[in-house]
Structures are given as structure tokens and as C-alpha cells.
Description:
Chain A is mainly β. Chain A contains no helices and 11 strands. In chain A, the strands form 2 sheets. In chain A, strands 2, 4, 5, 6, 9, 10 and 11 form a 7-stranded mixed beta sheet that branches. A 4-stranded antiparallel beta sheet of chain A has the order 1-3-8-7, with no helix packed on it. Chain A is globular.
Amino acid sequence: EAQVTQNPRYLITVTGKKLTVTCSQNMNHEYMSWYRQDPGLGLRQIYYSMNVEVTDKGDVPEGYKVSRKEKRNFPLILESPSPNQTSLYFCASSVGFLGYTFGSGTRLTVV
Amino acid sequence: GQSLEQPSEVTAVEGAIVQINCTYQTSGFYGLSWYQQHDGGAPTFLSYNALDGLEETGRFSSFLSRSDSYGYLLLQELQMKDSASYFCASYTGGGNKLTFGTGTQLKVEL
């Protein structure tokens, strides 16, 4: 089944403790992206990647890192999480303009 | 910067037709997409318009006017399961950058 898999689905962590949210897709898509969703703000792009080793900042990249060492994986790294990074995160992939396929989301709480 | 404006909420009755509007201000505009998201779920792709005009996919249609920086999603024969949030999103630049509007919550009533 074609899908984007994110892990974990839920995560509660403490301020400053480094964490990684994994994202993997099995559709051989070139484009991958991370979004965060907050009430009233819609989905805001954090980082995106056009292909292996090619990444670029989205609209809200501060406090996040990404890497794209393999085509299928695009992990999101929070080096020192803060409470304002509490959010619902989505990873997505696409082959072009035909539309992104989203993962099921990761609900992160930073206390 | 990029910005897309949508109404925050729309209510309609089952069986009716509803139109969700989206106006955008973007540079390097490629096209407009629409996504559906049910509560707690992942957004799912509905449609994409690169050129002016109407695209029809079953009960859903999407329209784009590049000269007016305007698009809309038309939902026909509304069903209760259509109750969800709907987002317009603009593609810009060569990097497949996708910027979303703040979303419209559609409530379908009996």
C-alpha cells in the first residue's frame, strides 16, 4: 500500500530534550515536506526537500532541522524543543504537482 | 510572502451545493490545490488547477481564475461525511513549495 509513515503518533517530552520524528514513504517520490498545524493557523511548511541531499526552508524553520540522506526518509529533528513547538506535525510526499500524500500526523507536546 | 484567504466556516444542508472561495496573493504562482481534512485526520488531496477554468471530479469541482487570483471549490449533493475542513493551497517556485490557507470548516446539517 502506498503510504507515508510517521513515528511516533503521539509524543510528550520535556523542554530541551532532543527528539526526532521519523518519516518514510514507499512511493519513490522526489518531493517531501514537513508541516505543522496549529488552531487558526492552518498548515505551515517547516522544511521541504526536492530530492536526496536537497533541502530548503519553508515558512517556519526556526528550531527545526531535517536531513534527506535517502530518497524514502525525511526525519524532522528538534535539537532543543520548547513549549511553542507543541503542535500537530505532518510529513508529506509527492511526485510533482499532482498532490501531496500526507502521513497520519504526530501530536507533539513539549512541557 | 504568500497568503491565501478563505472563509473560516460554512454551513449547508445535506443534498445542497456549497462553494468555498479562496483568494490568494503569491509570487511565482504555479497553481492551486484543494485538500480535505477530517477532524484528527491527515489532509487528503482533492484537486489541482494549473490553468483557468473548471476541473470536475465526481461531486467536487474546482475553479481557478489566475487574472483575479481567485479560486473556489464546489461541492455538490452534499453528504454528512463531507463535514470537514477544506484548505486551498498554492504551489509556487520550482521547489514544489506548497502554502496553505487557514482552512474552511464545512458543517453539513440534516
